Amino acid sequence: MVDRAGGVGWFLRARRAYPNPHLPGERGAPRRFDRASGALLWHVTYTVVSPAAWATSAGGTVVSGADWSIRAFDASTGALRWRYEFQPDTVNGAIISVTISGDTVYAVAEQLDPAGLNPKAVAMAVRLTDGTELWRGVAPEPERGGLRSAVIAGSLLIAGDYRGGVQAFDRLTGLRPWRTTGDPCCAGVTSAPIVRDNLLYYVSGDETVVALDLPSGSRRWTTNVPGSLIVQPALCRDRLFANNDYLYKFDRFTGAVVGIALNSETELPTSGIAAHGELAFVVGNDRVYAFRCD
Questions:
Q1: Picking from 80-84, 139-143, 238-242, 248-252, which range would have the lowest pLDDT averaged per residue?
Q2: Among 2.40.10, 2.50.20, 1.10.150, 2.60.40, what is the CATH number of 234-294?
Q3: The dihedral of CA 272, 123, 66, 54: what is its sign?
């Protein structure tokens, strides 16, 4: 944990293993840490094939997805409250992202055919209190890699599409009213879209930064930059920050580039971007940088 002045409050040293992806093992099971000290409060272990999705929490419940299951844990103790299993076949697909709004858990996933090929995009909603399925939506066309991080945007659940663009699902019915597409040459939208003031922003591996009007999904602007944009962008005031091995700053209303930083051989951004107050933060080669958002 680093404070706003750049001081290190605490850090954790993690050991990363790279197991055979086709063999079960412990990969990304939920842990809860004390925010002030970094002390481990509890750690849940279970056998999975695919890495677990990032956990999220609401109402005293921590929710995480792994393989074709969504699990809910008591936030205080780590005790399992319920498990929702979309399908028992853990080889041909996985939950990629989970998010919570009100009393509903939303998740997106990729579903493969029996041979492990031709992934399709899947979205689903379950009840937060007991894991009961409310709806399930499957995109009608085959995808190259399924859906990635999802966000809530009013009446829509919107997720990045690894093939390119984003897909929007109705939060009440699971129907998909619209999608956008990208250049199939490259990885698509692997980071979470950002929503503010009826606008949705996303960056893509096909070297584009895009803003859409909500809820229609019509394109407000597109800006091209030389290099794939894979990691998480951030909004700070009226600036959108993105990393393609340079740190770009865009005007969020027009898409115009208003600044480029960390563009030398010795200084370059190596992480996604976080924003708080008047500052945007990014990790570099050997230091953490803070930039003003004006």
A1: 139-143
A2: 2.40.10
A3: positive
